[in-house]
Amino acid sequence: MSFPLRATRTLGRMSNVVRAKTFTSPAAMMVRGLRTSSLVRLAAGQTQGSVPPDVADRENPDLTAAKVDAYLASKLLHPDIGGDPSLERGQERADEAGMPQIAVSAMQGQFLTVLARAMKAERILEIGTLAGYSTSFLSKALPPHGQLDTLELSPLHAKVAQQNFLDSDLFPFPTIHIGPALDTLRKMKQPEEGGYDLVFIDADKERILDYFLEALRLTRKGGVVLVDNAVRRGRIALEVNDEPSVDVTGLRKLYDWVEQDGGKTVLMSAIQTVGAKYWE
């Protein structure tokens, strides 16, 4: 993840906008198809097949990262946040709808809650709803009078997220804005009470700089913008310059912009996370 802080200004509804009165928490310890039971086995050092765990770990560092994440989740996940059973049900609903398993991990989700609470955030913007997993973690950090807007391109994804929210007990209820995120962002104004305290961008990387600049416009001075998947398993530095992928090209544009800004507008750091989602 990348964590920009603005210096001069830091960094539902459905149907085009969806809102409801009640809603709940997010979907369980999901790791690219690994369910809670799988994570428990990993935390206990169990692996599939006859390969000894220590050998499997040496041969597959991704498995080690997943096991460590599972262990930490078993110790640290708050029962009312990451341990909410509705999270698992919500992810099962996403599976049934054929949605991609690309949401944040449970520990990453709880990190969002911790950060938002530490900031005493009252207004949060999310770019990329998917099934509402990270949305729910963010909502759990808000006070009752808080505001959470989340942007989603796919009506199907928004419908699944809406149902997940309704099956939970989250409050305040997120507002889902359906349509191309950049179009929606360009129409948005800062909340009347002031800019967003926290923005979480978990969307396509091809247009990441555009999302980022719009996020800066909408955040308050001293606010925080988070960019997920900002390392791309090292490809951000390793892909040759004449053949980069669309994702890497988009992220490099963001990093180039921050470099040229020279700290006048934002202060940014990037953290390579290793865990259930492996190397981010």
TrEMBL record:
CDD domains, alphabetized: AdoMet_MTases (cd02440)
Keywords assigned: Methyltransferase, S-adenosyl-L-methionine, Transferase
Keyword Aminoacyl-tRNA synthetase: no
GO molecular function, one term: O-methyltransferase activity
Gene Ontology process terms (BP): methylation
Pfam families the record matches: Methyltransf_3
Domain of life, source organism: Eukaryota
SUPFAM superfamilies (UniProt xref): S-adenosyl-L-methionine-dependent methyltransferases
PROSITE patterns: SAM_OMT_I
Family designation: Belongs to the class I-like SAM-binding methyltransferase superfamily. Cation-dependent O-methyltransferase family.
Protein name stated in the entry: O-methyltransferase
Species assigned in the record: Kwoniella shandongensis
